[in-house]
Amino acid sequence: MAIAVWDRPDGSTVMVRVSIEHGRRVVHVAGEFDLAVRGLVAAACGAGEPATVIVDLAETTFLDCSGYGGLMAARRALVSRSGSLSIRNQRQQPLRVFGVIARIDQGSGLVDAADEKAGLTTMAPRRPPPPPRRHRDRCSAPQTNPKAD
């Protein structure tokens, strides 16, 4: 288990802890997850094996777009290695951020129904939806010319 602790200039502390649970790497983030710690969390997600990573936000008090961007960068790196990244235990402000992103980015495949029931938000890519079908008008008969003089 690896632990990184950073004392912020405002006096608060951010802790990133990495553990292995059921064959998956779990990155626990405690404190504010913003631009200042984005690289630290992305490195913890991308370093070593396994390439299946869960980011636990149970103790995360704040998540901004830089933190979310760090998660997306980590996801891209893991996917390039046939891995995946999931989020669990998002609460309060981080949960609201994911809710806003889900409303803005509908259909992106970020949330998998099976993982949603388990409290995970999957950030692995999914196949795009198929294009809409074109429907023919089945009520009209083909046009024919009975008298072709």
What does this structure look like?
The protein starts with a strand and ends in a 27-residue tail after the last strand. The relative contact order is 0.12. The protein has 149 residues and is an alpha/beta fold. It has a single domain, classed as Transcription Regulator spoIIAA (2-Layer Sandwich). The chain has helices at residues 35-46, 65-79, 92-104, 113-117; strands spanning 2-7, 13-21, 24-33, 52-63, 84-88, 120-122.
CATH topology: Transcription Regulator spoIIAA
- Helix tally equals 4
Distance from first to last alpha carbon: 89 Å
Give the C-alpha Rg: 23 Å
CATH class: Alpha Beta
Number of domains: 1
Major sheet description: 6 strands, mixed
What's a quick, concise take on this entry?
The chain is α/β, with parallel strands linked by helices.
Question: SSE layout and pairings?
Answer:
Elements: E1 2-7, E2 13-21, E3 24-33, H1 35-46, E4 52-63, H2 65-79, E5 84-88, H3 92-104, H4 113-117, E6 120-122
Parallel strand pairs: 3-4, 4-5
Antiparallel strand pairs: 1-2, 2-3, 5-6
